[in-house]
Amino acid sequence: MRIAVLDDYHRVAHAFADWTSLNSEVAxxxxxxxxxxxxxxxHEFDVLVLMRERTAFPRELLEQLPNLKLxxxxxxxxxxxxxxxxxxxxxxxxxxxxxGYGEPGWRGLPSTVxxxxxxxxxxxxxxxxxxxxxxxxxxxxxxxxxxGGRTLGLLGLGRLGSAMVAPAKVFGMDVIxxxxxxxxxxxxxxxxVYATKPELMxxxxxxxxxxxxxxxxxxxxxxxxxxxxxxxxxLINTSRGPIVDEASLIAALREGQIAGAGLDVYxxxxxxxxxxxxxxxxxxxxxxxxxxxxxxxxxxxQQCVEDIAAYMAGEPIRVVA
Length: 321
Fold this sequence. Notes:
Blueprint: E1 2-5, H1 13-16, E2 25-28, H2 38-42, E3 47-50, H3 59-62, E4 70-73, H4 83-89, E5 92-94, H5 111-124, H6 127-135, E6 151-155, H7 159-163, H8 165-170, E7 174-178, H9 184-189, E8 193-194, H10 197-203, E9 206-209, H11 223-228, E10 234-237, H12 246-255, E11 260-263, E12 283-285, H13 294-312
Parallel strand pairs: 1-2, 1-3, 3-4, 4-5, 6-7, 6-9, 7-8, 9-10, 10-11, 11-12
């Protein structure tokens, strides 16, 4: 079996799991591969190990990988892979699931929630701009803001959105939430107050996105929504870039429709060299670190090895339908 481990940006996959136990050839790719080069680069591999939604595998690409027998993805879903086509073709798809991670009883917050709060603090306390200024010898450029008394608006109140509520209360924030299927009763159970979408846009001082990317959520925040927001509001996105119309976001930041944005996700990842976002002074940007930590990646890669071993033994586990 020839195994390719893709998008190992931090070059840790080889150390986080015992790949030698598979008695197979394993190649680690630590840089993105251009879409046009993927068929040639991966043509000979029997197994692909993917970091969820970093590299897209549509049908037209998968059709050019005739040797593919098993695809393993971190997580139990991957919207960037045509899983339906692989099922039709008889290629097994397996995933990973960290037991208890982010669930009640887990000690601490999910990594993505920690990153969301890091971005909120960085914007409100001017961490990036003041750090850069001090390295230029400049002392105190502008005024930071406090979170107390402000309103956190949550676009999505699932596992991650709900985990945002308790920290907000600690910092003295009010919490409102909306999603298409959210009810006032469910919001109250999570410690938030239900709002309509227009109310969420109009009242949030911090709008934090915690939705899954789908046809329903793609472009959910665009030009119309930015006109409804406070000019002092901050947008935080640790979910998926295309939930926000990026061109509209850039325009809103340039024109002062909103005060700032903290972003961990983008329309195209890695962020293109010609992107306008790094040139905007009212942004704080991270390279999709939401789930990136040793606490998450180590068990993910260990389960990837388990998935491959189970497949080789004829008893696949954690199969993604």
